[in-house]
């Protein structure tokens, strides 16, 4: 921060502290301050150290065991420079295996941290890579096969910020934790004893694990006080299974400047911003009027996710601008995006996402039994005809009770599939050619579930998303695409190698679908 800005900030804090007590509490609205992850850069040897550890975290009345990187919950934000190598030493102090996947980074398979990159309890894994892609907000999280959902639910997630000369040249908000603010949104559910209540069972294998408590950077409805002007929010949907739809409570516009893989060509003005699990967007918000507002989550039409309290708009965080002017601007243009190449003659691959009909039926039964018809996300029984290749028209709650006869021994751990196959770590499905564009078609036809499809080792361009052209703010570099009962097409290219021993993954980023088979490995 510039010295004069610091003096202004100190003066504002002094004014606030001189207010009567009731005014100060009204100003603070009794909200906790938004926790800001530490910004970690490499040391003099170009190294960063991460320790995966257990701790305790307070969530309202709950004092829960949580996991984090270099702390009790979540992790630091790693700031990396384009073209500069980094070595990360990852120490696993948990009592179980884990991996660290660099989600969104274009790096070789042997350092990507997929399910083969296992770190045993008490062991250390060291990876070295050089980010070559443009500036972007990426993230890191576990990718332990069959355990990803549980380990993320316990709190393991952190940000990766890649910087390049272009991002430095733009007059965007850059003061970390002041006007450049990370916003990691997750939901949790707690037991009566106040512990994180995670199960991978029939219901969560079908619709995903979801909670009733919303966390922002690990806090419940926190508040942030930026200088008034342009505020940059680096948004991450870090939920296991919940898609988001974000807006400002007073309907002020959000200007999207970047998606998963970095800057767009120009800002895109939206009033609502849907986000899939694992997606990141950077938005600028104008707070120069000095008026407080909330970032809110609007209800989404997704199975299981319209259950109270998320059947109504729900606050994510409070933004209370300070009476100090910020100095950043919203540029008219951002980055150049290369034109799409000719699609003629490209290698084409098709991926059919599917769920075992027994899992589908039993999952719906469990969901409706626990939460009622509202949990079906607006789908009625007529619409469900053909859902998961099984006729379900005309079924009522009475006869749904008979669906699981003979299914007690059903193995739901391999019930989600791609091209009819559940994930096999030892059998990559195909080999892509390095440096060659490919056209991938991902189909969710015959399945009404939401599948955010994520591909490792690349940032791609969306050609069609669920049968429609991509929205303007989804036309840049992406690593996740929406598939929901329709067909999506992406243009992919892999610039690094991935061997059979360290294959890249492509999978549904609804973590419980990934953990129960909706994933494939491939080599480059």
Automatic annotation (TrEMBL):
* UniProt-listed InterPro entries: Cu-oxidase-like_N (IPR011707), Cu-oxidase_C (IPR011706), Cu-oxidase_fam (IPR045087), Cu_oxidase_Cu_BS (IPR002355), Cupredoxin (IPR008972), TAT_signal (IPR006311)
Question: Which Pfam families is this protein grouped with?
Answer: Cu-oxidase_2, Cu-oxidase_3
**MF term (GO), any:** ferroxidase activity
Which transformation does this protein catalyse, written as a reaction?
4 Cu(+) + O2 + 4 H(+) = 4 Cu(2+) + 2 H2O
Q: Where is the Plastocyanin-like domain?
A: 52-165, 404-524
**Where in this chain does the entry annotate a coiled-coil region?**
none
Q: What is its EC number?
A: 1.16.3.4
Family matches, as CDD domains: CuRO_1_CueO_FtsP, CuRO_2_CueO_FtsP, CuRO_3_CueO_FtsP
Q: What is the enzyme's main class?
A: oxidoreductase
Question: What keywords are annotated for this sequence in UniProt?
Answer: Metal-binding, Oxidoreductase, Signal
Q: Where is the signal peptide?
A: 1-28
Subunit field text = Monomer.
Which protein is depicted?
Answer: Multicopper oxidase CueO
Q: Which organism is it from?
A: Scandinavium hiltneri
Gene this chain is encoded by: cueO
């Amino acid at each position: 921060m510039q010295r004069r800005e610091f003096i202004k900030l100190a003066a504002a804090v002094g004014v606030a502290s001189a207010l009567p007590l009731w005014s100060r509490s009204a100003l603070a609205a009794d909200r906790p301050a938004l926790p800001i992850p530490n910004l970690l850069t490499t040391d003099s040897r170009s190294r960063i150290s991460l320790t995966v550890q257990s701790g305790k975290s307070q969530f309202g009345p709950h004092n829960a065991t949580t996991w984090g990187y270099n702390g009790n919950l979540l992790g630091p934000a790693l700031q990396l420079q384009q073209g500069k190598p980094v070595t990360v030493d990852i120490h696993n102090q948990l009592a179980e295996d884990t991996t660290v996947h660099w989600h969104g980074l274009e790096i070789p398979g042997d350092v990507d941290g997929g399910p083969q990159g296992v770190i045993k309890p008490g062991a250390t894994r060291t990876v070295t890579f050089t980010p070559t892609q443009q500036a972007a907000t990426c993230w890191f999280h576990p990718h332990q096969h069959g355990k990803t959902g549980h380990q993320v639910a316990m709190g393991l997630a952190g940000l990766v910020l890649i910087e390049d000369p272009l991002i430095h040249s733009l007059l965007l908000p850059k003061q970390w934790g002041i006007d450049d603010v990370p916003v990691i949104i997750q939901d949790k559910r707690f037991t009566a004893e106040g512990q994180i209540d995670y199960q991978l069972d029939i219901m969560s294998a079908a619709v995903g694990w979801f909670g009733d408590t919303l966390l922002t950077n690990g806090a419940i409805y926190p508040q942030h006080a930026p200088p008034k002007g342009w505020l940059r929010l680096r948004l991450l949907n870090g939920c296991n299974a919940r898609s988001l739809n974000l807006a400002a409570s007073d309907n002020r516009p959000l200007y999207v400047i970047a998606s998963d893989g970095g800057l767009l060509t120009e800002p895109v003005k939206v009033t609502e911003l849907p986000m899939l699990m694992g997606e990141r967007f950077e938005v600028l918000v104008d707070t120069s009027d000095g008026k407080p507002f909330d970032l809110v989550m609007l209800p989404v039409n997704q199975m299981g996710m319209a259950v109270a309290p998320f059947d109504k708009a729900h606050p994510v965080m409070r933004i209370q601008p300070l009476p100090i002017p910020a100095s950043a601007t919203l540029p008219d243009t951002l980055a150049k995006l290369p034109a799409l190449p000719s699609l003629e003659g490209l290698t084409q691959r098709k991926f059919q996402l599917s769920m075992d009909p027994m899992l589908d039926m039993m999952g719906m039964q469990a969901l409706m039994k626990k939460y009622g018809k509202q949990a079906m996300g607006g789908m009625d029984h007529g619409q469900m005809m053909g859902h998961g290749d099984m006729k379900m028209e005309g079924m009522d709650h009475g006869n749904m009770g008979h669906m699981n006869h003979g299914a007690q021994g059903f193995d739901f751990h391999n019930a989600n599939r791609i091209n009819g196959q559940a994930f096999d770590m030892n059998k990559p499905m195909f080999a892509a050619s390095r440096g060659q564009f490919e056209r991938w078609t991902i189909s969710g036809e015959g399945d009404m579930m939401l599948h955010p499809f994520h591909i490792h080792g690349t940032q791609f361009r969306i050609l069609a998303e669920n049968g429609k052209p991509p929205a303007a703010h989804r036309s840049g570099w992406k690593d996740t695409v929406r598939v929901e009962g329709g067909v999506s097409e992406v243009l992919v290219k892999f610039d690094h190698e991935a061997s059979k021993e360290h294959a890249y993954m492509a999978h549904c980023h609804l973590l419980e679908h990934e953990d129960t088979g909706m994933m494939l490995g491939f080599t480059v």
